[in-house]
Structure formats: structure tokens, C-alpha cells
Design brief:
The protein has 400 residues and is of the alpha/beta class. Helix content is 31%, strand content 24%. The protein contains twelve helices and 19 strands. Strands 1, 12, 13, 14, 15, 16, 17, 18 and 19 form a nine-stranded mixed β-sheet that branches. The chain has an eight-stranded parallel barrel with strand order 2-3-4-5-6-9-10-11, surrounded by five helices. Strands 7-8 form a two-stranded antiparallel sheet. It starts with a helix and ends in a 10-residue tail after the last strand.
Length: 400
Amino acid sequence: MTARASDRARYEQATAHLDAPLAIVDLDAFDANADDLLRRAGGKPVRVASKSVRCRALLERVLARDGFAGIMSFTLAESLWLARSGFDDILLAYPSADRSGYAELAADPKLAAAVTVMVDDPAQLDLIDAARAGGGEVVRVCLELDTSLKLLGGRVRVGARRSPLHSPAQVAEVARAVARRPGFEVVGIMAYEGHVAGVGDAVAGQPLRSRAVRLMQATARRELAARRAAVVRAVREVVPDLEFVNGGGTGSVQYTAEEDAVTEVAAGSGLYVPRLFDNYTSFTGRPAALFALPVVRRPGVGVVTVLGGGYPASGAAGTDRLPVPCLPEGLRYDPQEGAGEVQTPLLGPPADDLLIGDKVWFRHAKAGELCERFDALRLIEGDAVADTVPTYRGEGMTFL
């Protein structure tokens, strides 16, 4: 029996009493992936990206391990909710325009101490001040550095369009603007190199593209390491007691952690290991999060139809954003239908061994987005369900 067939047998045994659709997290795989992230971080703390987990119980589980410290959140409302739930070190990874959230933050000493907000433009400070509604707490601020690689005098850009702050002088100038402003304190710098951390460099069947990606990423890492160090030096001239410098992501943990200027790395997808993280030479994780859909039709030889399945991931539309049927091995989408809103035909020899009511197991393309489809996660240990825990959605929290 192959390892994947063994996993399927365990999952089938554990969930035999449960009807699909359902979602699971294999705790053995989850914990092994956490160990691998710590190994690659080389002793630097790993801040957990909550958008890639979206389950409080699993955030608590991973943060209870030595080596993990703090949360990287994705909305201000989520940050405040987590702080009220007892998490005390939350870095909001994106600027916010949530005026009511800023009013709540500025009025509550506990929340203001626990949450750090993201800024890359003095206009964001204006919005926060206008939203304070009399709240006088000091707002903790992190400055975001644009990590994109610019070539040919800036005519070619590789990387996400995030912060407008690219040079040490630009970041230092915003640091000075914050320092001059009563009610704010710069405590950190963040720089997320998504073109390294979130782009696979070993795409199956595409050796030339994979080689080009590796070349781009090596160039980007060298350029960013030098520029990030210069940014940190420039900001420390304004804020000598800077608390943290955050960088990296699941796909770049070991490279980012090697930089002396970086004090902590961020990761989240590496805990669940969705399908977009299969194509890396730098690490190999174990798929930990899956969902099952029930067979409801057998339209013909070599075909079954499952209920639901149209769960595309965010990003540029493409087949790589679709979930992938993984268990039993050998199933594929009908190219004329793909993953459907209410039904999904699947083709392949294993279809003939599936009966009405059997489960087909899928992996989502991106990590935490799976949790927007399910209220609960069944936590699997061995061949049994050890616990059932709510996702953010299951707690009534849909932040975006």
C-alpha cells in the first residue's frame, strides 16, 4: 500500500460515521510541518500567518510550541477579535480603513498593547487620527517595505504591488513622519517577498520555466537582503529601539532567516501545505488539510460525480487555483466542466471502484481559504477523529 493509499484508509476509517462534505486536518502532518518550519527558521521566531490557518484552536496549538511567537493577521477586525480572545502579539499585515476598529483600538489599553497596525503612507495616519473618537492610546505601527525586484531602471517589476516604500530613504521618511506624530510609535518593519516565498521553483513538466524562476529568485534574494539591511539601518537612526524586523513566508523561510537584519520570519501555509506549495526545491511538506465530497452520481464508465467542489482560490484565474482531487489517486476533472458550483464530474479508472455515498478527497489550492467553505475541521490522529473545532466561519467570523 502506498503512503497516499494508507492516508486514505486512515481518513476513511476516521470519518466513516460522518457524511461529506467535510474538512479535516491531519494532526500528525500538521505537527510535522510545524517542526519543518522551525528547522528551516534556524532558531529565529516564526510568526504565524492567520489567514493561512483561520482556526483559533489550531493557532493556539502551533503557538504553544517553542519557536513560534505571535500572529500575523489580515484584517483589523480579526486582530481585535484575536486580542479579545487572549492572543497578545498580533501584527496586522495590511493597512486598514476600518474606522470603527481604529476607534476601538485607540480606546482600549489592552487592545492597543496587543495589536500592531501596518502603515506605508502618512495618509493612513490621518485616517487613524480621524477615527480615534477621543481614544488616546498610543497606536503601535509597523512600516512595510516593498520587496519587488526592479530591473532595467524600473521598467521591469517582479513581485506583488504592495507598499510604495522601496528605498531606505522612503521608509526612513515615513518613520520620521510617525515619530513626529503624537499617539503613534514605530515598533517594526515588515517585508514580504511573495515572489520568492509564494512562487514554486520546480513546476512539473516545465523545466525551463522552473529554471527561470530559480534564477529570478536567487537574484531577488540577493538584492532584497542588501536593501533590507540598508532599510533597517536607516530606520534605526530614527527609531533606535525597533522591536522587530519581519520577513519571509513559507517558501522562503530558510533564506530570509539567514539575514542578520531579520529578527523573525512569517509562515502559515506551510502548516496545511496546500497544492500551491508542492512545487518547491527548498522543502517538502506533508498535506495536512483536505476536504471530502460525496459521490452522488455514476454517469458512465470511468466517471463519477461529486456534490459541490467549485472552491477556487484567490489570485490570477487559472487551473492552478482549483482544488485537486487526490484520493483515490488517479481522478481528474472533466476539462469541459471543471470544478462545479453544485456538482463536479471526475474522470479516471478509480471512478469505477467508487459507489454512491463514497468520499473523494481533495486538496485546496491555498491554505486558509478552505476554511471559508466549512464551519468545522475534524482533527485526525491516526485513524480517528480526535476533536472537532470551529473555523473562523464556524464562529461567525468572516472578515473578508
